[in-house]
Amino acid sequence: MGSKNKLRRFKENETFSNVVQPTREALVDHQFELKGQWNASFFKKEQPLVLELGCGKGEYSVALAKKYPNKNFIGVDIKGARFWRGAKTALEENIPNVGFLRTQIELIDHAFAAHEVAEIWITFPDPQIKYKRTKHRMTNAAFLERYKTILKPDGVVNLKTDSEFMHGYTLGLLHGAGHEVLYANHNVYKQEGSPEEVTSIQTFYESQYLEQNKPITYIRFKIK
């Protein structure tokens, strides 16, 4: 993507009513007014709040919002030029129950209050395979603690990935730490019984992985 195109998208994001872009300082200094008020102030409708972390172009967030109008969805990513597409689509198609938050995942517990979130989706994250990159893996122990803070007591996390490494790493970590694995599948499109919201929604990259016959894995779990 050219830098001019990127700048245009950043500018356009500033005009979108469904995009929120707090400064790091506002989040860290507890001055972010939507924390604890997403349903009341942003969506203006009390429904279960669902996050997609590292949402990329926002395809999954938008598709989930269309599929489940009785839930509120927020795609979270630091790269605003990417989720510009999802935000623009949601506005064009008048999908009121989805928004986008530009911030780092490390600050997620500064953007949402304790027990404010019903469910988290992590779709096709960078597996960060090198050992020195462990701290950046989105299912490492430190991230799970942050998620636990903002999730309701019965809240769940969904991990969908084409990385067998990420799938195995996460399963091992979950079992080792005593978290509750509700469902795990090494190939959601080959094995029967896969949850419908996992197989009925595909991102652009996911369709490319499937063309290459890469298995798509899925884990649904609760953080204890």
TrEMBL record:
Gene3D superfamilies: Vaccinia Virus protein VP39. It holds the Pfam family Methyltransf_4. It is an enzyme of class 2 (transferase). It comes from the Bacteria. Its EC number is 2.1.1.33. Pathway: tRNA modification; N(7)-methylguanine-tRNA biosynthesis. S-adenosyl-L-methionine binds at E52, D77, D126. InterPro entries: SAM-dependent_MTases_sf, tRNA_(Gua-N-7)_MeTrfase_Trmb, tRNA_methyltr_TrmB_bact. The keyword tRNA processing applies. Keywords: Methyltransferase, S-adenosyl-L-methionine, Transferase, tRNA processing. Substrate binds at K130, D162, T203, F204, Y205, E206. GO terms for molecular function: tRNA (guanine(46)-N7)-methyltransferase activity. It catalyses: guanosine(46) in tRNA + S-adenosyl-L-methionine = N(7)-methylguanosine(46) in tRNA + S-adenosyl-L-homocysteine. Transmembrane segments: none annotated. Belongs to the class I-like SAM-binding methyltransferase superfamily. TrmB family. Catalyzes the formation of N(7)-methylguanine at position 46 (m7G46) in tRNA. NCBIfam families: PRK00121.2-2 (NF001080), tRNA (guanosine(46)-N7)-methyltransferase TrmB (TIGR00091). This is tRNA (guanine-N(7)-)-methyltransferase. The lineage of its organism: Bacteria, Pseudomonadati, Bacteroidota, Flavobacteriia, Flavobacteriales.
